[in-house]
Amino acid sequence: MKKFKNFMPYALLLSAILFVVACGKDGAVGPAGPAGADGKTGAQGPAGSQGSKGDTGTANVIYSAWLDQAFAPFTDTAANGRVDTTGWYSVIQASRLTAAMLGKCDVHVYMNVNTPTQPVIVSLPNYDYFNIGFDLRVGGIVMQSSIKASTFTYQGEKVLQYRYIIIPGAVAARGAIDWNNYEQAKAYLKLVD
To answer: In angstroms, rounded to a whole number, what is the distance separating the alpha carbons of residues 145 and 125?
Structure first.
């Protein structure tokens, strides 16, 4: 019994050391075991409740219908009193174009140089047909032209109509779209003529 009593403190010390080593955090992690077999597919759960209707993909995009625009002359009065027309301008009303959006949004203006039934769409600014460009103002888009580019009717159809697309700054435009190509922009934004 005496030998056992002398051995007891050593046994307890050895047990404590083994316990500390076994619980240590610095030990190596063993290899992962093999994946278990797939279990059986369970029964389908109950249907979830109907969520609220989400916005369409073009919710933040602002665009107009095809618009008729009348151009007025820019005039300059010479010293002799003669009034000369130096260009033409027209304002497209865009009430949703706010001061906060100016400089942060992407605006595209298109012109149909033909009729709605046989459209020929060009992007502004455009210098192929005549010089025509635009500037942005709160509530409107001011177009300037070298000719009177007003909408008119020819054989019962409108000619020279205009349309704008405004993409607010919070919506990132994708670089893959050629915004000068009206058909690509229309398809990407899902616009209806």
So the answer is: 10
The answer to whether 87 and 73 have CB atoms below 8 angstroms apart is: yes
pLDDT at 55 > cutoff 70:
no
pLDDT digits (tens, 9 = 90+) for 99-157: 989 888 889 999 999 999 999 999 999 888 779 999 999 999 999 999 999 999 999 99
CB 121 within 8 A of CB 182: yes
Handedness of CA 13, 14, 20, 24 (dihedral sign): positive
State residue 2 phi and psi, 5-degree precision. Answer: -65, -40
Beta bridge partners, 84, equal: 76
Residue carrying structure tokens 């130096």: 86
Cα–Cα distance, 110 to 65 (Å, whole number): 11
Burial class (CB in 10 A: 0-12, 13-18, 19+), 149: buried
Q: 189 with 61: CB under 8 angstroms?
A: yes
Cα–Cα separations (whole angstroms), residue 174 to 58, 157, 177: 13, 35, 6
Q: What is the dihedral of CA 44, 46, 47, 52, to 10 degrees?
A: -140
